[in-house]
Amino acid sequence: MIKYFISGFFLVSLGFSVDVNFSLETKYGKDKSNYKYSENILDISTFHDNISFYSQLEYSDPPLLGISQNSFNNMKPIVYIDYMTDFLNLKIGNISTLFGRGTSLNLSQDQNSDFDNTVNGIILEYFYSNFNFTLLKGGNKFYSRTNPTQNSPDRFVDNELNFLG
User: H/E element holding 111?
Assistant: First the structure.
C-alpha cells in the first residue's frame, strides 16, 4: 500500500512539476531490560504555488514509547493541507501552532518524548494592516501517562478546542 502511495506522489510530481520531499527516520535497538523497539517515520511534503501538503506516517512494532502502530487501522497519521496568500492562511488537518509565545496556545508534537497535543481541525488566519484575525476549531484524543517510566499511556482525554484571536 505504501509503495503505491509513494509511486502516485512521484508520478504527480513529474506530471505537474510539483516539488515533493521524502524523509525516512528509522530507530531500532534494545535497552538494558532487553526491550526491543523498532520505529519507522516517513514524512512526505509537497508544495505547488500557494498550496502545500504534508503527511507523516509511522510504523512501529513495538515503539520506543507509546502505542504500537503496525497497521492502517490503528495508525494516527499526521496530515494537513495549507493554502497561503498575502492576506490569508487556511490550514486543514492536523494543526500545530503557537500563539502568544506559547502562553496563550501551544500545540506541538514531539516524536522523541511521545508528546502530541495537536488537534485535527481547521485554522483560518486573516491579515489586515497590522492586525491578525484567527479562528481555530478542532479536537483530538490526548494520551498521557501517570508514571513517566511507563512505555504506553494509561490516561485518555477527548478534547475540543475553539479559539478566536
Answer: none
